[in-house]
Amino acid sequence: MELLDKLAILADAAKYDAACTSSGVDRAGQKGGIGGAVSAGLCHSFAADGRCISLLKVLFTNSCIYDCKYCVNRRSNDTRRTAFTPRELAELTIQFYRRNYIEGLFLSSGIVKSPDYTCEQLIKTLTLLREEYHFFGYIHVKAIPGADDSLIQRLGLLADRMSVNIELPSQQGLQLLAPDKSKLAILHPMGLIQRKVNENSTDLVRYRHAPKFAPAGQSTQMIVGATPDSDYQILNLTQSLYRRFGLKRVFFSAYTPVQSDALLPALDTKPPLLREHRLYQADWLLRFYGFDASELLDERHPNFNPVVDPKCNWALNHMEQFPVEVNTAAYEMLLRVPGIGVKSAQRIVTARRSGSLDFAGLKKIGVVLKRAQYFVTCRGKPVEGLKITPDGAMRALISERSAAMLPQNQAEQLSLFDPPPTREDVIKCLTGQL
Amino acid sequence: MPDRPAVIYRYDGSFDGLLCCVFESYARRETPLDIRPADDPQAVLFPTHEVPTDADHAQRVFASLQKRISSEAQRQVQYAFLSCADDKALLIYRFIRLGLRHGARVMSMLTNDTVCAVDKAVRALLNERHHLLEFLRFSDFKGVLVATIEPKNFVLPLMQEHFCSRFPEERFLIYDKAHGMALIYRPYSAQIFSIEQLELPEADEYELAYRRLWKQYYNSIAIETRYNPRCRMGHMPKRFWGHMTEFEQEQRRLPHTAAGQVLPASETTDLSSPTRIK
């Protein structure tokens, strides 16, 4: 088979993997070699679906001995099968890398013959890249569940990041849809990687040149919407993965129906993109905004509000903590104001060092007030002339996507006599209505 | 210094020249109304003063930026000079004056018009640099890598370290068409030249094969049910597309190649053209 066809098949088979980041490791190039890495990662392109293309994301082969129902590469699926040779793939990676198309390689694979055999193929490819081509770019590799620990370790010494996909958020889902995989088989390599990364960091303190084990840590991914798990379960699982396994990232992948099966959502089901979006928003809140999963959802509210984002939802339910005074609030509290992100909060903290801020000043330093104005004061005063109407506030707070679903703005008769609605009215309306 | 006559400074357009304007203004105890490069065609009514460039004066001003303000401010000034802000000379001059008066605090005075404008210009510069580190595409011409860019800001000096560190054993050239400059690297030295025009030969079969592979990959990796052109455009503004391999039209007349067969046009899933997607 021509290389072009192989690439088409093996890229297509890998595209449902959400992770494509090249972040977490900073490495300058070295004489005699090629490549380096930037800790923030670089996205070399964006596909037509708006997702970043940072790495050459392919399967080594799309043949598989497993029969996971949600997967295009499952054994019983009638599809064209092919495989790269380690040399082909290494050469392709280098040639793409030289042209600045990619930051490196993201290598995953179907399971051929046995997990051990598959793992050896991956090791062969990465060894070629690292030792023969002297490639110092980014490599993300899937740990193959079920492979021998010593093989996983060798893989980890060649790669920057490793991942084991947790696939489905619950054991029941796994049993139903991926009968060949067990929770244990997935969590075992995850724990192994974590131990190795930790051991390695103490080794590095002792011996500066100790080989690095997956210096960019590990990540995982789960499919959302193939099983009936709630957002609350998913978010709790996410949080414990960050805390217990020290994961760098958890990715969510809205389930896109690829085959029909009685156990799966119907083929014409739209991928739950909004739900995936809300989960990512919440994931950000856990990682960068100091939120705890229990603040965002609980048993009584197990799913995210489709109309407002999780942070705004939290704020509306905790109005007693607002408004926040921009000039005195702690950084952590600024981060909790809807409409103020990490960058804005940092700029506020910087700018107020040299003088007190008013709303004009906020605007000037680039803080967008559309949403934040309902939750902040400057020098003790709210935005001058802020007309808090239920409709206006709601439109400002909800996302643009949901705004399209609301009835169009109607012309409003200004009245001299009706008292303007108070802040409490608006809050009541928002929390009640939403 | 309000009672001095209004004057406009002209400098030679170099960074040193601009620093000399700062020196001159302090030496003559006057505040210029504007600072323009000597080749600026704009006619002015006010008296102008040609500021000669003196390496020693420039060095004194440059050193004082770090000593009397901060090294962050010194870098900010260097970056601002590379930006495409229209009135950057005057902005930088005012920024330095503010800095010399307020010290290191100037970097946090973000509500000041001058500091804010400088900050904005520098952020635009660094953003564009970041975009180009990502979206720049090399082509291989007989072992030499060549890329063309058309940035608004003069980002070339800020790209040098990244690519030189990453490709130590390659020979490469990055041509900035907008500014008529080029970065040329051969192991292990780099230089930035002024260059009028760059004529490139036709790409050979070897290069075309990899371009085709990349386009194939680009189209295969997108999930059709998630087609989202607005999201793509938000992350990757269209002005960069012109020099990106994945958006280049296939040259029809070329024969099929060793690395792979070209699919007939009807079979290629071309997600870049919106008509193919419902």
UniProtKB/TrEMBL annotation, chain A:
Transmembrane segments: none annotated. The lineage of its organism: Bacteria, Bacillati, Bacillota, Clostridia, Eubacteriales. CDD domains: Radical_SAM (cd01335). This is DNA modification/repair radical SAM protein. GO terms for molecular function: catalytic activity; iron-sulfur cluster binding; metal ion binding. InterPro entries: Aldolase_TIM, DNA_rSAM_put, Endo/Exo/Phosphatase_dom_1, rSAM, rSAM_sf, RuvA_2-like. It comes from Ligaoa zhengdingensis. Pfam families: HHH_3. It comes from the Bacteria. Keywords: Iron, Iron-sulfur, Metal-binding, S-adenosyl-L-methionine.
UniProtKB/TrEMBL annotation, chain B:
Residues 266-278 have a biased composition (Polar residues). This is TIGR03915 family putative DNA repair protein. Signal peptide: none annotated. Residues 256-278 are annotated as: Disordered. InterPro entries: DNA_repair_put, DUF4130. It holds the Pfam family DUF4130. It comes from Ligaoa zhengdingensis. Residues 87-246 form the DUF4130 domain.
